[in-house]
């Protein structure tokens, strides 16, 4: 299923490495702040971004939805 959602995207060297969907921008920004504070220091090659994207989603075996790929 293709939907538009808020996604926290990890860019490594300018390329999309990982992505996670969120219902609200506030939850995405909270997760981004936590990651930047605790896990990674600001570098030129690692960047996190909360963006509204059109994505393809699917349901996993645990019943949770996840992003299969970014359509844009």
Quick gist of this model?
The chain has 72 residues and is an alpha+beta fold. It contains 1 helix and 4 strands.
What's the main sheet like?
4 strands, antiparallel
Strand content: over 45%
Order of neighbouring strands in the sheet with most strands: 2-1-3-4
Structural class: alpha+beta
Number of helices: 1
Spatial extent as radius of gyration: 13 Å
Count of strand segments = 4
Q: What do the pLDDT scores average to?
A: 89
Task: List its salient traits.
1 helix; alpha+beta
What does the model show?
- Strands 2-1-3-4 form a 4-stranded antiparallel beta sheet, covered by helices on one side.
- It has one domain.
- It is about 20% helix and about 55% strand.
- The two termini are about 15 Å apart.
- The protein is an alpha+beta fold.
- The protein is globular, with a radius of gyration of 13 Å.
Note the topology.
Blueprint: E1 2-12, E2 15-22, H1 25-38, E3 46-59, E4 65-70
Antiparallel strand pairs: 1-2, 1-3, 3-4
């Amino acid at each position: 299923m293709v939907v538009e959602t808020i996604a926290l995207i990890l860019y490594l060297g300018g390329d999309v490495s990982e992505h996670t969907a969120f219902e609200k921008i506030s939850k995405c920004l909270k997760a981004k702040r936590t990651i930047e504070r605790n896990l990674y220091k600001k570098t030129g090659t690692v960047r996190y971004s909360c963006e509204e994207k059109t994505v393809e989603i699917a349901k996993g075996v645990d019943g949770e939805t996840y992003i299969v790929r970014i359509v844009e």
